[in-house]
Amino acid sequence: MRVIDTTIVAVDKPKYVTDRKIKYKLRYDIGYGHAFSDSFSKASKRELGWSHGVHGLRHTFAQDRMKELTNHCNYKESLLATSQELGHLRTEITLVYLR
Q: Which structural domain, as residue segments, surrounds residue 9?
């Protein structure tokens, strides 16, 4: 195990877990899945008084990233880059985040 910073620790051997029928390969000793999502939403509601959840962050990131990239690249290149940064292989999925 090696410490990345004071809160994130990399594990020596990846751990495989399943949450809500989704298989995860964990490389860091951090929360995941439903428990992480619930914790994030509760903390956001406590501190901000509202929450759009962890998934809402992906929507915001995609929208903000597209605005930034289209200042430097054409739309198609920007969409492809944003898709890859989100971990998607198909731009059609990223288009959902841009609605």
A: 2-48
Q: Are 36 and 57 within one domain?
A: no
| Structure token pair of residue 39 | 């914790």
| Distance of alpha carbon 88 from alpha carbon 48, whole angstroms | 30
In this structure, the answer to whether residues 39 and 64 fall within a common structural domain is: no
The model carries a pTM of: 0.61
**Residue indicated by tokens 């410490």:** 3
Q: What is the pLDDT of residues 17-30, one digit of tens each?
A: 887 787 878 887 77
CA end-to-end distance (rounded Å), the chain: 41
Does 10 share its domain with 41?
yes
